[in-house]
Amino acid sequence: CECELKDWFMWFMRTQICIMTWPRLGSSTVGNQSRWDIPVPYERSVNLSKNSKGVIPRAFEQFRLKSCVDFKPGQQKSFTSLWRVVKGTCWSYIGRSSPGGQTLSIGERCGRKGIVEHQFLHALGLNHDENVFTTQESPYDYYSVMHLDKNAFKNFNGPTIITKSPELQDVIGQLMEMSEYDAIELNKLYKCNSSVSFLDHCSFDEESLCEMSVSSAAGYGWQREKSVSGINVTDHTYLGKEQNGTSFFMHFSTERRNEGDAARLESKTLTPTRDCKVQCLQFYYYHSGHESDPLNIWIRELQNQADSTGALRLMDQITETPGNYWKLHHVQLNANKSFQVVFEARKGAGNSNGGFSLDDINISETECPLIWQIRDIEKELNSGFRELYSPLYYSSDGYRFGARLLESRNQLTISLSLVSGACDEQLQWPCPWRQITVQILDQNPHIQKRMSFEQSVTTDPDLTRYASRDLCTK
Questions:
Q1: Each residue of 137-167: pLDDT tens digit?
Q2: Annotated binding-site residue numbers for Zn(2+)
Q3: For the Peptidase M12A domain, which residue ranges apply (predicted)?
Q4: Do 133 and 202 have their domain in common?
Q5: Is there a single domain that holds both residue 319 and residue 391?
Q6: What is residue 28's predicted lDDT score, i.e. its pLDDT?
């Protein structure tokens, strides 16, 4: 075991063996009879807080992104999982314990995505991670959302769990979201071969280019590169990490090209399966060309299996002053049928010494977030800045808002404010019962392996100011 448990805490666990089944290998504990049928029906208690009612669907989306486990609202006569609020507590049975349904409690202070995931993973059959033995297939996971923290069940005599690696003492017990190995355990338990909402990922490390195709009118186009001479650009996937020698990205050079020269990079055909026909395209790009060079993002929607050309629709265009660094970009798609994503780089009117680079493309059947990317945040922190202001955004229902990042006493605080917008006369005021979620994005190149910190706040018309100490981060 990779954690040393204090004697009294070991005694506590041993007393539980009589009433709970503890695993011997891996963190899953249930057999076939204790697994749920998929999708899992659920019913939310009317007493559940409004904030938790918004957080729970966000947790569901992580299960759909990282596994084949899905959920559907159920009726009293057929539900197999019931959300019922128990004030001040968060708990769940482990696995399917009752054929007629069972309670899963999300208390008043449990309305965080990581806590909801933790309890629902219990209900699906996973136990606490510190109770497992390390195997070659399942290494000890300090980052598991199922791991208790160092002070679990403390009696004020110091930590109850001590990691053998001291630098990981403050890592255990994270409540951001399920880890990569949590998802592996869940997929193994439910025999998943795919996920509900994940469509594709490509880092271009394989020569197959993830079945993407390249085309250009003049015989040149997107090239698979490790680096580009004359431009300070290398692979994004292993940015800041030790590279394994097989990391690549795609690059289209606009240097010494004629205005209008273009090349396309087309994804394989993807087929939406969810009822809500929305998809999010995420990718990293590096613009080293001229500000007049555009990067167009199209989708080619195919009408049927015999249709090989489809209809192209322009979804977004990037034209900006070159940044000479990797930037994350999101494009909301709305394909109703099978489709391809097409990246078209084009030479503009100005002189160029670079071009466009692409890496780490992810496509999922989810909504895209609004992104505030702060360049060189460590440099900003070291410079002693007091506050930074985001661009202004519109919510999906028309409210305009902005964010402020404040540094004070070695803490970072994010605050959000509504501002006047174009739709104000048609909106409901004072913006009642709207939930906003602030997320510090884990920029793992693979969307299914991300562990992002987030906190949600729901507006109450009887209050004028909202605060959450969990939004303050050292």
A1: 678 899 999 998 988 887 777 888 889 888 9
A2: 118, 122, 128
A3: 27-193
A4: no
A5: no
A6: 56
Please state, in angstroms and rounded to a whole number, the distance separating the CA atoms of residues 13 and 3: 14
H/E stretch holding 50: helix 50-66
- % of the chain residues with pLDDT over 90: 54
For residue 65, the SS3 value is: helix
Cα radius of gyration rounded to whole Å, the chain: 25
- Domain end residue (candidates: 318, 340, 364): 364
Read off the amino acid at residue 253: S
- What is the C-alpha to C-alpha distance for residues 182 and 374, in angstroms, rounded to an integer? 30
Assign 280 to helix, strand or coil.
Answer: strand
Cα–Cα nearest to 53, from 45, 64, 61: 45
Residue with the two structure tokens 């409690």: 105
Instruction: Tell me how crowded residue 228 is: count the other CB atoms within 10 A of its CB.
Output: 19
299 & 435 share domain: no
Domain ranges, residue 334 = 198-364
Same domain assignment for residues 350 and 407: no
CATH number of residue 465's parent domain: 2.60.210.10
Q: What SS3 state is found at 41?
A: strand
Q: Which helix (H) or strand (E) holds 389?
A: strand 387-389
Binding-site residues, in ranges, read: 118, 122, 128
Give the three-state DSSP class for 56: helix
Q: Is the pTM of this model over 0.85?
A: yes
Count of domains observed in the chain:
3
The conformation of residue 440, written as its DSSP 8-state character, comes to E
Residues 219, 339 within the same domain: yes
Distance between CA atoms of residues 400 and 228, nearest Å: 41
- Domain-located, residue 401: yes
Longest dimension (CA), the chain: 76
- The tokens for 437 are 């979620």
- C-alpha–C-alpha distance, residues 328 and 359, integer Å: 10
- Average pLDDT of the chain? 84
Structure tokens at 94: 């482990």
Each residue of 33-63: pLDDT tens digit?
A: 788 888 988 888 888 888 888 999 999 999 9
- Domain CATH code at residue 147: 3.40.390.10
| Residue 343 and residue 402 in one domain | no
Residue 83 in tokens = 């959300």
What is the DSSP secondary structure assignment for residue 14, as one 8-state letter? H
Coil/strand/helix, residue 447: helix
> Is residue 398 located within the same domain as residue 296?
no
Helices (H) and strands (E) in the chain, counts: 5, 24
| Beta-strand pair 103-106/82-83 | parallel
Cα–Cα distance between 280 and 363 in angstroms, integer?
A: 6
- To which residue do tokens 């793992």 refer? 444
